[in-house]
Amino acid sequence: MFKSTILAILLPAAVLGLAVRPCANNAPVPQEVRVLDCVQEPCVIPMGGMVDMDLDFIADRASATVEATLDIFLGNFRVPYDLPVEQRNACNFFKGRGCPIQAGEFINYHLSTPASAPFADVTVDLRLQLTAADGSPLFCFRSSATIVPA
Fold it and tell me: How far apart are CA 48 and CA 32, in angstroms?
């Protein structure tokens, strides 16, 4: 009984979506963003730890390919960071499918990437965007994370 009560309390916290902010380019935002062990901004991530997120979106256009970009900002300064080459092809991280995608399709995208910052005890702004083959964004959102010592 006690274990099931604890599970009932903890389980909703593990699946709640994170409130995210739109990007300046007016791109759509995902329907839901779920970050492991984080339910509100800023997410707290140990230096060198993994950012593990799932998000759901509905494609507003068809595309043969989809590119992922993750930009990290410290104030107005863009931290020199790019997703690893193998993670830039977002098609490889669509749950149960790949590309091409069709307009109106529901898609789950999973990203698990190392936390990177120039130093610990800093809060950074993150911008994640998926871009269709024609160069237009399928979605874009901003969120923040505090990088702490490992």
Answer: 25
C-beta atoms surrounding 143 within 10 Å: 22
CA proximity to 68, closest of 36, 92, 34: 92
Strand partners for 113: 51
Distance from C-alpha of 102 to C-alpha of 46, rounded to nearest angstrom: 37
Confirm if 87 and 69 have CB atoms less than 8 A apart. no
Paired sense of beta strands 43-46 and 137-148, if any? parallel
For residues 68 and 129, the answer to whether their CB atoms sit within 8 Å is yes
For residue 45, CA distances in Å to 49, 52, 101 come to: 6, 10, 32
Taking phi over 0 as left and psi of -120 to 50 as alpha, with beta for the rest, 136 belongs to beta
> Tokens for 93?
């991280």
pLDDT in tens, 15-62: 458 889 999 999 999 999 999 999 999 999 998 888 899 999 999 999
pTM (two decimals): 0.84
